[in-house]
Amino acid sequence: MKKILFATLAMASMSGAFAQNPIISTWFTPDPAPYVHNDTLYLFVDHDEDDAQYFKMKDWMLYSTTDMVNWTYRGTPISTATFGWATQGDKAWASQAIERNGKWYWYICAQDAKSGMDAIGVAVADSPSGPYKDPLGKPLSAPGFGYIDPSVFIDDDGQAYLFWGNNGLWYARLNDDMVSFDGDVIEVTSLNDENAFGPLVMKQDYRLNKRMLKTNYEEGPWVFKRNGTYYLVYAAGGVPEHMAYSTSDNINGPWKYGGRIMDEAEKSFTIHGGSVNFKGRDFMFYHNGMLPNGDGFRRASCVEEFKFNDDGSIPHIPFTRHGVATPAGTLDPYKRVEAETMASGFGLKTDRKAGDDHYLTSINNGDWLRLRAVDFGDRVPRHFKACVGTAKEGSAIQLRLDALSGPVIATVNIVPTGGVDKYQLQSAEIVLPKGVDLSGVHDVYMLFQGGEGELFDFDYWTVE
Ligand code: FUB
After folding, report:
1. What atom in ligand 1 is closest to the CA of residue 287?
2. Which of 49, 59, 219 to mutate to test the pocket of ligand 1 (most atoms within 8 A of CB)?
3. How far apart are CA 427 and CA 411, in angstroms?
4. For residue 4, pLDDT beyond 90
5. Which helix (DSSP H) or strand (DSSP E) does residue 12 occupy?
6. pLDDT tens track for 292-308
7. I want to staple 301 with a disulfide (CB 3.0 to 4.6 A). Which of 32, 261, 282, 410 is the partner?
């Protein structure tokens, strides 16, 4: 056992896996698009395949948090198969979703199979996790060169807009139905104006196939409004990209360049994200290539907290490993906690399906997960219960307090259940070693143990 833990700790510290950034460790999740609804922040992300050597993206995933440190996988609600018009199995690129009058609208970009050009599409559902349907059966925009990276925004007067574009920036007013345009697509013609979008950059023009001085604006627009000012955050500067922004007092411009807000992402030539205010605090999401085995085609979502300057400008936001230092809430262990909720983890996967029922899988000996801000209150729970399914003998879940090397307070020795689909709630007594106080708020680690190969699937846990 000691040997296993030592190896796990060594691997974890080598991979930087104790860090909070990236925030999702089970899959590669680029192009994060946060959205706040009631007390929950939903994170709509793309998905780089584990073996991607170039962009290899087939589906879109959803995560959520209520405390900014523990993230719950909410499924893989849409894929290229949701959009009959799209090239199947690839080019599931950046997206953003929004709720209006109880319906959820998930704007995506994909490749129009007929023309081979980029196009914006939309899927609609009654809940953030779906089920989603493409109400149009065709792209929302006519396909176009550079028609990627949609960003949706609803103004105070209820008028909704969709912005998008790589090496070009376009927008359109959305009708109230949110799935059709009111009027023509408008091109932002000031992209080469340095006052509007920053200094021109020498880069490749893919349409003309030559290097030339071009706009600093690259792609990935993210539109929002704050105190009457419209903000447009975007990937800038060509490849490698950094993040910059422009502002305006009118959604139709003119735009004024605001400056660089994030540097070139670590180990990724793209950067993409957006900001959101959650529980009175501002957060900027982005992606990098910093997960183990990550790079420019295997990217992972990250987040930094920041404060707007007094004049409304966005400061330069440094990258951190620790991410959100102060949780925006606590996790209640006396309720059912989904196993696919974690602050960080090592070696784990979730399923990859739509719907609301999800589980943690690909659990091997020495893998672990960490939960932050777990509030035990002033009670001392007597049991740790884990709902698991496996046909294998000899697996266990150790519950450790405050650190992966911290005191073991319970061990569920898993009794085989006859098959991975036969989930059963299994229990262990909580025994506090001398001097260990469980009351109040703690980090909690689960260390998974067993023999060779995948051990079990894990549905949820609780204490009582
Ligand atoms: O993830 C595929 C593409 O890379 C996105 O659409 C761009 O914004 C860039 O992040």
Report:
1. 10
2. 219
3. 9
4. no
5. helix 2-14
6. 999 999 999 999 999 99
7. 32
